[in-house]
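does this look right to u?? 3DD version
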Amino acid sequence: MANYKVANEKLAAQGRLKIEWAESRMPVLMRLREKYSKTKPLKGQRIAGCLHVTKETAVLVRTLAAAGAEVSWSGCNPLSTQDDIAAALAADGISIYAWHNLSREEFYWCIDRTLDFKPTLTLDDGADLIFSVHNKHQELLKYVIGGTEETTTGVHRLRAMAKDGALKYPVVAINDAETKWDFDNVYGTGQSSIDGILRATSVMLAGKNFVIAGYGHCGKGCASRARGMGANVIVTEIKPTAALKATLEGYRVMPMDEAAKIGDIFITATGMKDVIVDRHFRSMKDGAIVCNTGHYDCEINLGDLEKLAKNTREVRPNNDEHTMADGHRIYVLGKGRLVNLAAAEGHPSEVMDMSFANQFQGMLFMSREGKNLKADVYTLDPKLDQEIASIKLEATGIRIDKLTDEQVRYGSDYAHGT
Ligand code: 3DD
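got this back:
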């Protein structure tokens, strides 16, 4: 029996039902499982994973195991583990160390446990696992042939390490795949962030001033989904081109100092620290709701808020009320951690299907090529995007046109002009 530590093994049956639900909505990953469970190309590989323990992640874990890998897993956020999913994976025989609401020490203890079997591959979301191997477990570097990284923030961190010559093994930036960032980050984050806000507050979005800090892929998704629910979207930005795009999309754009005075709901999606700080809390309306959908919990400065608050209490699950000296109340969701996974179930299965098809392909690629690559950050072959998208279209019964031979020739013929 695999070693593991989960909150409650009795939740396994409930978790299994959720995983089956996800499997029925992840045709790309299930197609890969069907294909590679026969040939088992990952046989002999030991994969340590550090990625939110959700029903969708469980489908990826089961697919990696079906392809022959030995898998050990921890969650990549103290608040994002779904305990019933963790129980189901433990019952599957996966070495999983994850439970909801981890302390910082427990979080890193779980990561350390996944390293006990000396992984040959690491699979990350936020680079905490790979960073632990580089900084606390250098003796394991000799076993690792490569890794993958899921998210924008993690890829940014790894590129900085590579630039410094600090990266010691090759990693695939999964986030750079079009069928990841242009779907997961936009449509996934858009829907799941609204989902988290609604589960933690059940407020009406229509007519509310919905302030989004950061108009990158995630912010863009949040803006369009919030507008779809009738909210008045306000965008704050530091990058002129992003601010301009938001303006041309019809959103109001202004500095956070101004937005803080009129916002009803605030969400940060910047990847930067201290986006909402003391002076913003002071100018917010009574009843303002504040949350974050970036990977780390540094975007909302909770230290500033705790200094200002005279009283704090949990008024609903994942919803803390902070009362200021003047009686104004500010509601922080998910303790400032990513609201889509702390207060809801993360992105829907349909979109994680493509992100995790890229993760699976990244593991295959690294298991084959890792030992021949220098320590750097790589991207998958863009052809894989079209393959993943084609399977997705086929599974959803959508048919598209095909170029004729003449059109293919035209596409590469530079001789003719007007
Ligand atoms: N992420 C969002 N929803 C998720 C889910 N249902 N399962 C696992 C991970 C999930 C995080 C992704 O957005 C990841 O791609 C990221 O952090 O960028």
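The longest strand covers residues 309-316. idk if thats expected tbh
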